[in-house]
From TrEMBL:
Domain of life per record: Bacteria
GO biological process: folic acid catabolic process
Alphabetized GO MF terms: dipeptidase activity; para-aminobenzoyl-glutamate hydrolase activity
Protein name: Aminobenzoyl-glutamate utilization protein B
Organism the protein comes from: Maribacter ulvicola
One GO location term (cellular component): cytoplasm
Length: 530
């Protein structure tokens, strides 16, 4: 970061004398007028954002398999004058789309795009009804974020061109977020070295933003593989060394450990290889863990304990062990200046107007999954989120790594139903309905207005960096959990996607024939249980 400060200082010095960076000075009144205009452009383009949201929903692609989604989104950006760079950090589905209007800040707009295994679900139907049984589906709502970013970026671009505002917009995808397996690699490979700020967007059920340390954890994702000796399980079992025994013993050891972990820590595992058939002693087996904690040090402590257990399990079974880091996410920390600026725009935009049909669907889904929340969609804005000083455990997102590289916030927008369990078919129900579409339009307006603020008010950008350098990094310094040689596990999910792709293809949204995806699927909105 020192490098960045020096660079920034030199840049400021040089620019102060050349006057290159100077945007034409505009009054607050003029800036407010441009913000009203940019929001109006987003509103006028809502048909396009609906099509994008529905389209990505229909592709239903898992992490690292976002082939159709990436092709479609980069196609739109390219048509609109963005330059596309593909295969970022060696990930075939990752891309960076850049459009520049000359000297000025570079603002990165990120969001995730992958979906959830086995979460296939008809949108607008208030009970479990898979489109393709067992197939992946958008049970996390990641089909909406990049469409939202594109919507705001295209609106801002229009204003920048017309008003001759300098600056660069970068739209980028969080590939394989569910595996937290891309963003730390982007950071490691220097992809965020020259970025001035990042607005990340994530589906939520209110329009909100926060700053400081946030609720949730960071994590390291590790697969332990054991290698043994095969034998006939009945004919000569004494000649076998079971790799599966080793994986099971490691799992048992960790389950005992769990009792003695602090409640803020979370850990979970699945077997990724548990042998082939009972009459062959498994010569290979593997178990995959996520180790989560609210602090980097805590994550690495768990990782070290697990490594010892894996070694112990290998010793006990006479097998050998190797391990591989499959993903990492730093605990997140958001920028105060960006959040406060954004929150003013959130108050300006407000929540969408929900129809009776939207509310009926939301309440029916809440009832269906026994949610504690029963009041449907929100009608009151969330407060600005303050730093979480009493840590609260929970999920992770690898935007954490980027939040320690450049001033970052996550804008949450109201495209889903409150009170659902997450990573579940019920979280897909709203995601190709008017609820998702309206939430995306509201979020895109906030995002576009915030970009205009930061392009035209250099003091804000300076303030964001002051907070980042002096407050955020006062006690904590980022250090990557991946090494130079760790590669993103781009082979993950291939089999799962291939198994369903041809079946899912039949349901890809065709916007040339149907107004909405609901119409294509013949879903009456909302469809409730009798
Ligand atoms: Zn997510």
């Amino acid at each position: 970061m020192k490098q960045k400060i020096t660079l920034l200082a030199i840049t400021c010095y040089v620019l102060a004398f050349t006057g290159l960076y100077a945007q034409r000075k505009r009054s607050n009144k003029q800036i407010e007028k441009l913000k009203t205009e940019v929001a109006a452009i987003v509103e006028n383009n809502k048909k396009q954002s609906q099509v994008m949201v529905d389209k990505i929903f229909s592709f239903s692609e898992l992490g690292f398999q976002e082939v159709e989604s990436s092709k479609y989104l980069t196609g739109i950006l390219s048509e609109n004058g963005f330059e596309i760079e593909k295969s970022i950090s060696g990930i075939p589905t990752a891309w960076f789309a850049t459009w520049s209007n000359g000297e000025g800040p570079t603002i990165a707009l990120g969001s995730d795009v992958d979906c959830i295994p086995k979460a296939s679900q008809y949108p607008g139907v208030a009970y479990h009804k898979p489109i393709v049984e067992g197939a992946p589906g958008h049970g996390e709502g990641h089909n909406s974020g990049i469409p939202m970013n594109i919507s705001s970026a295209l609106a801002v671009k229009k204003i920048m061109e017309r008003e001759n505002i300098g600056g660069t917009l970068l739209v980028w995808p969080g590939i394989a977020e569910e595996l937290v397996a891309a963003k730390a690699w982007y950071v490691r490979d220097g992809r965020f070295d020259d970025i001035d700020m990042c607005i990340f967007t994530h589906v939520g059920n209110n329009l909100g933003v926060s700053y400081g340390p946030t609720r949730g954890t960071g994590l390291i994702s590790v697969e332990y593989s054991f290698d043994g000796e095969a034998a006939h399980s009945a004919g000569s079992p004494w000649r076998g060394k079971s790799a599966l025994d080793a994986a099971e013993l490691m799992n048992i050891a960790w389950n005992y450990k769990r009792e003695h972990l602090h409640p803020l820590k979370r850990s979970h595992s699945i077997f990724t290889d548990a042998g082939d058939q009972p009459n062959v002693v498994p010569s290979k087996a593997a178990i995959w863990f996520y180790f989560r904690d609210i602090k980097y040090e805590g994550i690495m402590e768990m990782y070290a304990m697990a490594n010892d257990m894996a070694k112990g399990a290998a010793l006990m079974t006479g097998t050998t062990m190797t391990s591989k880091v499959l993903g990492t996410a730093w605990p997140r920390y958001y920028n105060k200046v960006i959040a406060e600026t954004m929150y003013l725009n959130i108050k300006e935009v407000g929540l969408p107007e929900w129809s009776d049909a939207d509310q009926q669907l939301a309440k029916a889904v809440q009832t269906e999954v026994n949610s504690e929340k029963t009041e449907g969609l929100p009608v009151k804005l969330d407060e600005l989120g303050l730093p979480v000083l009493e840590p609260i455990s929970g999920g992770s997102d690898d935007i954490g790594d980027i939040s320690w590289k450049v001033p970052t916030v996550t804008l949450r927008y109201p495209s889903n139903i409150p009170g659902l369990q997450g990573h579940h078919w019920s979280n897909a129900i709203a995601m190709a309905t008017p609820i998702a579409h309206k939430g995306v339009v509201a979020g895109a307006k906030v995002e576009a207005m915030t970009i205009i603020d930061f392009l035209l008010k250099p003091d804000l950008m300076q303030g964001a960096w002051d907070y980042f350098n002096n407050e955020q990094q006062k006690e904590t310094k980022y250090q990557p959990m991946i090494s130079e040689s760790d590669m993103p596990p781009i082979y993950l999910n291939k089999d799962k996607q291939d198994q369903f792709r041809s079946e899912l293809e039949k349901y890809y949204y065709d916007e040339t024939k149907y107004d909405t995806y609901l119409e294509q699927l013949g879903v009456e909105y909302p469809t409730l249980k009798n």
